[in-house]
């Protein structure tokens, strides 16, 4: 259940690996990256996002859901049965380890929206899935959808990331993008749904920082139909990218100019056309500016992106070797698994660094 | 005159004979003729005429003069306060309506004073506004729901044209105060300061004097129920147009500028005969419904080629959320909500003191309602009425307002001491008067400098508050109720405000 508290500020470690040719690697590497940043977490949350892990069933939405109890699951099951064609469903395999105590029920469903439901609601499949995720998160007590994209999944919970990884046996999955998070929530007990990554459809976000503008980001998103219930500021970031990029069709880099907007002093120096664009962005989406310290790694099936707040109040480092790109809170994390880097540098304040997978990887 | 006709003076003027150098400054400066000099130049007070405007105390070179509350007392009574007794006697004499001016001064609870702002500690850093950019630019007008972009000549460009918006360097607007109610020099000071600060001043309902035409980029012109001074030229000489439906100090009633304040200049600016009372009807007689308002908004937009925002000013009344929603849907580009502490040059005392609701509740209710209806982007919300300092402003913004207006604050910066006698036309400070001898006391350049300083001070304070909150753009403050906490407010009030109690 949701603990009796409101939103949770957090510190944290973040890391990501991507292979642009789509070569899938086991979760060991990302576990290694996280292990050197152990002290950035405090054992109250860890998690992983993995892309390309369900190649045998890539066209189905995979819902990773956690349940506090059987009755919550029964309610969700009937909701899913009513709205989706279920190709497969199963318990998410876990390993019993002493560090992970009292886990919720963890289940995954491979589904497609029923065509007649889409017609009845006049919605596309993505919108339908988003709506159902919101419905489950807000209306059914004791269950949360951790991820809802295709050929990807989020594995997260209360514990150090290394322990969460062992618990979910992530070494058995192979992915071409991995992101991970170790959490240091400062003033609350951690809870399973509050761990990172946060996700909607195939968007995942891991975040180090605290969003001081959370109150208005949340209220702004609510007017566009997103309901924030996970009590953690990072949740708004996932929904923000979904709204701006998927729903409003903005290019990712333009969306980044919303969440880390250009300063007015720089906008004034732009050409007239650019000035018009950036002024319009701030006027329209000013409430989605993520204000306060953040370093985030955003991933989808097609790319991985690192971004810092516009005055760079959190660390984030990029490294590259061959087809592999790395982003992490600390350079040590990258060097732990690849010391022979072709390129390594810190991210610039407010400037996104996006690495894309080759076109043929993800059609 | 029978003793029954007599009223005890409210104030008592003490002149220290030893300190007084008989220079006569106090006598010359008193706009209310409450001081005289006898043949030996001794200063003689007429206590009954004193309104405690304090001008004499400010100008006296030796501080020989003091205005105090009339020391003669009535038997203490917590219920029948001296004010009520005096008012009853006044009405028994006159059979008229009690008049007053400035904002509601009654001891209702002040919600602003029960709200506290947040600050960063450890988990997120506060930001130092002296070292980092701190952005308080705001745009007044309708914003789109989304924007579309195209990739052209190797870069992204905006596809749509946005509705007209006005850029303000600070989220502050000088509140509507009409020429007629206040002097031309006061209007000039406001316009000059608005231009220098990159903000806006509002003409109020008295038209725009031609001397202010040069400031048109920083002027909101009002269209009120009396339609004073409204012409195509007037509409053109503005950055924005505002339909005044109501005023926080006197919701539901009109206005009355007494004929003795209508001199040649006021007469030509307002387009009414000299010396006649300027009566604003309670409602606009072409607006009896929301659809009528929509038509007037459309007409004004049509008349100005859709080149500027058209706003609507309404008083904060019980059903404000639904009304504001209707106004937004009637295609207003901004809504001014004037709370029950809002000022006035003249209002019936009973109306001013007993009608309306606090601005804090009104902003919260309106912001919530517009968000719930998904039309918040259609309008800017301007909070008016009783904003006293930069922290009130920050709280109003956090509750959901995009801008605040300041009227009383601006007057005080120009000298006003809140004697609440604006309607007499005798303002000793040259503000709320048209008497040439008084008006000339207010130097527009000097007063404008005061206003500029004030806006600068508030802007700096706003930036300090934002820095403490760990945010560096005003877009992250507006509507961010998460950063407010309430001290000792009822659960219902918290619910309306959308604010958590302190400690949670």
Explain the overall architecture.
Chain B: Belongs to the glutamate synthase family. The complex is a heterodimer of chains A (363) and B (504). Chain A is built from 11 helices and 18 strands. Chain A has 363 residues and is of the alpha+beta class. In chain A, a hairpin with a 3-residue loop joins strand 13 and strand 14. Chain B contains 15 helices and 23 strands. Chain B has 2 domains: 94 residues, Alpha-Beta Plaits (2-Layer Sandwich), CATH 3.30.70.20; 360 residues, TIM Barrel (Alpha-Beta Barrel). With 504 residues, chain B is an alpha/beta fold. The model of chain B has no long low-confidence stretch (mean pLDDT 96). In chain B, strand 11, helix 4 and strand 12 form a beta-alpha-beta unit. An 8-stranded parallel beta barrel of chain B has the order 11-12-13-14-17-18-20-21, surrounded by 5 helices. In chain B, strands 6-22-23 form a 3-stranded mixed beta sheet, covered by helices on one side. Helix content of chain B is 29%, strand content 17%. Chains A and B meet through helix 6 and helix 10 of A and strand 9 of B.
Second rung of CATH, namely the architecture of the largest domain in chain B:
Alpha-Beta Barrel
Oligomeric category: heterodimer
The largest sheet of chain A has its strands arranged as 8-3-10-1-16-15-17
Number of strands of chain A: 18
* Rg of chain A, Å, rounded: 19 Å
Rounded to the nearest angstrom, the distance between the terminal CA atoms of chain A is 38 Å
How many individual domains of chain B? 2
Keywords (chain A): Glutamine amidotransferase, Transferase
Protein name (chain A): Glutamine amidotransferase class-II
GO molecular function, one term (chain A): transferase activity
Active site (chain A): 12 (for gatase activity)
